[in-house]
């Protein structure tokens, strides 16, 4: 008699289980980063730089993880980041992720280049969701998808700023990354933008080079705000200078992101960029962060450094590959349990009370050189 393998007990084990199920080309597409993947590794290592200094003898019998974010009440400060082509992981793709987010009391940020339409994702979410946006060379394509997203209930737009061109993703070049014949970019079904062009190497790179606008500037923010009434966040902010410019241009929130280490290699890890961005914003708009989050303690560190919430990407894709909607729900539930436990162990009863006094930067000496 054979016994079933033990289910994953943490997010890293979900990746191991997902890799066993996924086509190697798909796994490399999800898992890979740019060039030598220095930033991909640094996103994770950055969290290990910060250590926690707990307080004791605090009544932690009741822990509050809930937050309010741009008019949405969430059960925990974890959102599902935009991730493309989710039907490569599971037949239900983005629909499973949207349903899992709804079940967990949080929200999905749906990708422009999803494998279900924004209308289908909205129906699956049956409640709040956000929409991630790329600006195309043809602005009318962008205008149309913004109007569709707003019409079907998107509560915010997340404009990705970090892909004027695609980073050099060598895993995708080697595998010749492409979509199978039965999967297309659903939001553009029936048009040229629904499929990748024929090309050597990564066909996604060829698509991005053909479609995305590399001339986009801050003027695009004003244009976007002129065609929508819902909040606009900028995704990909890493410098305090750009954070201040974003506030000046009237955006409603920022996502500190380096695109999961998939664009500029040797780019600053997001957890190290976060405090400078938070300080530059000075409480005027909420700041979120993604990249490298694998544990509840990572969330504690990000919130202590000033993030209002975090977004996870690869971890929920691994859950999707392993178990569809239930797999994504389990990933979120594991993070919820770890976050709740971590709060209790550091002596805080609410995510709202976390601040930088909780953290020790292990990269800096704790004592002077001479005593």
Would you give an account of this structure?
The structure is a single chain. With 371 residues, the protein is of the alpha/beta class. It is 41% helix and 12% strand. It has 13 helices and twelve strands. The strands form three sheets. An eight-stranded parallel β-sheet has the order 4-11-10-9-8-7-6-5. Strands 1-12 form a two-stranded antiparallel ribbon. The protein has a two-stranded antiparallel ribbon with strand order 2-3. Helix 10 (240-248) links the parallel strand 8 (232-237) and strand 9 (253-256). The N and C termini lie far apart (66 Å).
Sheet with most strands: strand arrangement: 4-11-10-9-8-7-6-5
Oligomer, anyone?
Answer: single chain
Mean pLDDT: 95
How many strands appear in the DSSP assignment? 12
Content of β-strand:
5-15%
The helix/strand series, from N terminus to C terminus, equals HHHEEEEHEHEHEHHHEHEHEHEHE
Structural class: alpha/beta
Query: Main sheet, how many strands, which sense, barrel?
Result: 8 strands, parallel
The DSSP helix count reads 13
Which stretches of 5+ consecutive residues score pLDDT under 50?
367-371
Which value, in Å, is the CA radius of gyration? Answer: 20 Å
What is the percent of helical residues?
40-55%
- Based on Cα principal axes, name the global outline: globular
Kindly report how far apart the N and C termini lie.
Answer: 66 Å
């Amino acid at each position: 008699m054979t016994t079933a393998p033990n289910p994953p007990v943490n997010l890293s084990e979900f990746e191991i289980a997902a890799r066993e199920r996924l086509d190697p080309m798909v796994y490399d597409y999800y898992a890979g980063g740019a060039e030598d993947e220095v930033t991909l590794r640094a996103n994770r290592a950055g969290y290990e730089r910060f250590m926690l200094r707990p307080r004791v003898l605090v009544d932690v019998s009741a822990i509050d993880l809930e937050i309010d974010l741009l008019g949405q009440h969430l059960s925990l400060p974890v959102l599902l980041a935009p991730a493309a082509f989710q039907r490569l992981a599971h037949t239900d793709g983005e629909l499973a992720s949207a349903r899992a987010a709804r079940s967990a009391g949080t929200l999905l940020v749906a990708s422009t280049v999803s494998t279900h339409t924004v209308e289908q994702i909205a129906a699956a979410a049956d409640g709040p969701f956000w929409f991630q946006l790329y600006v195309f060379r043809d602005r009318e394509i962008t205008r149309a998808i913004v109007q569709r997203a707003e019409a079907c209930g998107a509560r915010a737009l997340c404009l990705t700023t970090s892909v004027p061109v695609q980073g050099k993703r060598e895993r995708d070049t080697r595998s010749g990354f492409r979509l199978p014949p039965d999967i297309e970019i659903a939001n553009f079904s029936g048009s040229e933008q629904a499929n990748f062009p024929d090309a050597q190497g990564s066909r996604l790179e060829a698509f991005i080079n053909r479609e995305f606008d590399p001339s986009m500037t801050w003027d695009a923010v004003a244009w976007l705000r002129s065609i929508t009434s819902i909040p606009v966040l900028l995704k990909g902010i890493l410098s305090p200078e750009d954070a201040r410019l974003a506030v000046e241009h009237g955006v409603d929130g920022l996502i500190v992101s380096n695109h999961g280490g998939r664009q500029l290699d040797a780019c600053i890890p997001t957890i190290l960029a976060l405090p400078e961005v938070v300080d530059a914003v000075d409480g005027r708009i909420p700041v979120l962060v993604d990249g490298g989050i694998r544990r509840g303690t990572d969330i504690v560190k990000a919130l202590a450094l000033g993030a209002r919430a975090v977004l996870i990407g690869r971890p929920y894709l691994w859950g999707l590959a392993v178990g569809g909607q239930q797999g994504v729900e389990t990933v979120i539930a594991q993070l919820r349990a770890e976050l709740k436990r971590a709060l209790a162990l550091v002596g805080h009863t609410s995510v709202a009370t976390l601040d930088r006094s909780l953290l020790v930067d292990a990269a800096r000496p704790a004592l002077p050189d001479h005593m």
